[in-house]
Amino acid sequence: MNNPAQSLTQEKTALARLVEKLRQEQALLSETASEGMTDLISEKASIVAEMTTLAGHRHQILARLGYADDEGGMQQWMNEHSSDDDKEIWAALFDLAQDAKELNRVNGILIGKKLSINQSALTILQGKSNAGNFYGPDGQSSIKSVGRRLGVV
Asked: Residue 140: pLDDT above 90?
């Protein structure tokens, strides 16, 4: 196998599946409940492993052909040897990669917000915040008021 573009269609298909999983992840992160997230993370990991294997094979071929074993080497090979179809697939791969990068960035922000909300809730439940403590350890109200207590002369 001397054509590093041979598996570009498979890479594009895998990347399209990853983009779809990232969109599903974003939808789950936007909801209150995140049921199904564990399965989704596993599916994403499997797709990323497949993509890594495909890119690794492409990089090995590039190195055997005397090109840099990275995207720059692939671009050079594409400029010198590829067909128009290969160039279209390569361009589509870059477009999908940009989509994946942006979805991943937004998902990271959503995850950060969820973590912050959960941490705040845990802090209140653990009694580390005065804002959430209405009763002290003796069962009496911990809210202090200024002035006289009602019914006391």
From this structure: no
